[in-house]
Amino acid sequence: MFGSSIGHLSLVAAIDWQNAFQTLVGIPLKILIIVASCIISWLILTSMIKRVTKKLVNKAESDRLTVARRTQHTTDLSAVLMSQRRRARAEAIASLLRSITTAFIVCIGILLVLAQLEINITPLLASAGVIGVALGFGAQSLVKDYLSGIFLILEDQYGVGDVVDLGPVVGTVEDVTLRITRLRDMSGVVWYVRNGEVLRVANRSQGWTLAIVDVPVSYDEDLDRIKQLVESVAEDMDQDPIYDSMLLDKPKFAGVESVSGEAVTIRVTAKAAPEQQVAVTRILRERLKVTFDRAGIRMPVVGGGSSSPSAPVPPSSQPGPGQPPPRTYGTGPLKP
C-alpha cells in the first residue's frame, strides 16, 4: 500500500514536470523559432530586393549620357535620358516591395504565433474576409486610390521633382504615396491630389523639353541675314560651357511662323534638359534681342511702323552682320 502510493506520487510528479516543460519551454521556444524564421525571411527578401535595385541603379549609371547635348537624334536622346530615371523608379519600387514584404511576413508571423498559443484563428480569418468585403464595398474610393498609386509607381508616370500637369493643377511633385500626390504649383500653393482621381498625366520632366521662342521682326528685314544672326547666337550658346547642363542640342532656326502686314514672326527652337525649358527660353530670347539690337534689326511697334534700337551702339563696337554678341555677355566667365 505504501509502495503503490509512492509510485503514484512519482508518476504525478513526472507528468507535472512534463507539462511544465511544455508550457514554460516548448511553446515559447516554438514562438521564438517562428519569430526568428520571420526575421530571417524578411532579411533574405529585403536583401534580394536591394540586390535587384542595385543592379538597376548600376545599369542606369552605366547608361548615363556623358555629353547629352551632342546627341542629335530625338529617339536616341529620349532613350538615354529616360534610362537616367531608372534609379528613382527602382528605389520607389524597392520601397513598395519592402512595405508589402514586411506587412505579409508580420501577418503570417502573428497568425502562426496565435496558433501556437492554441487560439483558434479560423474566426479571425473569417472575420478578416468579411471585413475585407465590407471595406471593398464601403471604401471603394480608398481602394481605387491605393491601386492607382501602385500603378503610378510601377509605371513611373511621374516622381518627386517632376513638373506635371494632372488636369486641375500644374506644378512640381513634392511627394508621392500610395494614396495621394502632393505638388506645389507655380504660385507656391500646395495641392493634394488623390491618385484615384488622376485621369491623365502630362509629365514635363521626362526625357527632354522643347524651348520655343517667337520673335517678330519688321516685314522688310532680310530673312537670310536674320537666319545668320540666329545661327550665330545658337553657335555661341552651344560652345558656351555655362549651358552644358541646360541645352541638349544647338538651337535651331525653325523658320517663319507667321506673316502679317507689319511683321514677320520667326521661330527658334532648342532642346532643353528637363525642367530647364523656361530658363532656356528666357536666355535665348534675351540673347536674340541683344544680337538684333547690335545688328540694327528693327522690331514692329504696336499700332504700326517699326522701331529701331533707341540707343544704338557706337559703330566701333557693333559687330558685323551675322556675328554673335560679345562672349563677355551673360553671367559666365570672361573668355579670351
Keywords summarizing the entry:
336 residues, SH3 type barrels, alpha+beta, single chain
Explain what the structure shows:
The protein has 336 residues and is an alpha+beta fold. The chain has three domains: 2-119, no CATH class; 163-203, Roll (SH3 type barrels), CATH 2.30.30.60; 209-317, Alpha-Beta Plaits. Helices cover 51% and strands 16% of the residues. The chain has seven helices and ten strands. The protein has helices at 2-62, 74-83, 86-116, 122-138, 140-154, 223-239, 277-295, and strands at residues 163-165, 170-176, 180-185, 190-194, 202-203, 209-218, 252-259, 263-272, 299-300, 306-307. The strands form three sheets. The protein has a five-stranded antiparallel beta sheet with strand order 4-3-2-1-5. Helix 1 (2-62) runs antiparallel to helix 3 (86-116). The protein is elongated, with a radius of gyration of 35 Å. Residues 64-71 and 309-336 have low confidence and may be disordered.
* H/E element sequence: HHHHHEEEEEEHEEHEE
Main-sheet strand order equals 4-3-2-1-5
The helical percent reads: 40-55%
Q: How many domains make up the 3D coordinates? A: 3
Q: Structural class, please?
A: alpha+beta
Strand content: 15-25%
Oligomer: single chain
- Terminal Cα span: 120 Å
Helical stretch count? 7
Number of strands: 10
Any low-confidence stretches, pLDDT <50, length ≥5? 64-71, 309-336
CA-based shape: elongated
Rounded mean pLDDT score = 74
Radius of gyration: 35 Å
